Amino acid sequence: MSKPVEIQSAAQFSSLLQDSPNVPVVVQFYSASNEASKQLAPLFERLSSSLSKRKIATFAKVNTETEGLKALVSKYDVKKVPVFLVFRRGSVEYKVASDDPAKLQSVIEKLASDIENMGGSSSGTGGSGSSSSSGGASWRGADLPRGYTDISDSIDVKGLELLNAETDFPVRALFSKDKPSALDKGKSTSDEKDWVESDTDEQLLLFTPFNSAVKLHTLQITSLPPTDSDDDDVPMRPKTIKLFTNRPHNLGFDEAEDIDPTQTIEIGENDWNSNGTANIGLRFVRFQNITSLVIFVVDVDGDSEKVRLDRVRLIGESGEKREMGKLEKIGDEQGE
């Protein structure tokens, strides 16, 4: 399939989403009489020809003037055209809209690049978050809650700050979309340092600012401490974590100990899955309109004075991006 699928009915549209569970489905809502739609049509055709052939994405078109498609137009709140929606596993993940064809073209090209880099091959994980990714697709340590997405892309990585980490462990590695090297090599003593360990004691303070206000639903933490080390000070998994929201900067350790957190989390041994990931549900009503998150690792599950983090995933709904016009990453309708 190289050309976009021209949707003729709501049933056909639903079937297309069901038949493409492992790759993004990019849908253009357009009008044959709209000038901006006409200008973007060749670009959309080129993207479809390039990415569909390599099974990176599926492309479709919905003519908003078609009487039988009015229900789709209403369901996805399409008020102006052209509008582009990107679906993953049947849910809207991105919505791209603009009255400026040049700006919209820039957004679509970047979106296409992101899709290609994510490498949504047909051999992806489907609904399973425990499988490793191939061909560049994002690795997931645990399943996503229904209706929500990984919003780690909303993090302002330049503003990340991690206190009490050993200096040769990169903080950005925590948010890598790659499978942890400890799992890739079948052991947690990998020489590749794509994880973080604490320095003088078992505590860490991670300041995570966002590019836009977000809603946080779930925190996923992956920790893969070595199991075959004779070192008495081998790092352990975190046990107690405190979360603080909307701080203008990172906290100090004394301050984090003294003030009330937004939520305190106790992680038990049974909370870790086979990927070494704990899937932590947050008190959703307390994590609305969040501009920054401080993650305070208080102590570990053991006697060690070191803690290890391999991956951090933030799951929820992201707000409107501040760059490149109106590029929204959203989850399904809130129903939980």
Automatic annotation (TrEMBL):
Keywords: Disulfide bond. It comes from the Eukaryota. The keyword Ribonucleoprotein does not apply. Residues 1-113 form the Thioredoxin domain. Residues 140-334 form the PITH domain. Belongs to the thioredoxin family. This is Uu.00g041770.m01.CDS01. It comes from Anthostomella pinea.
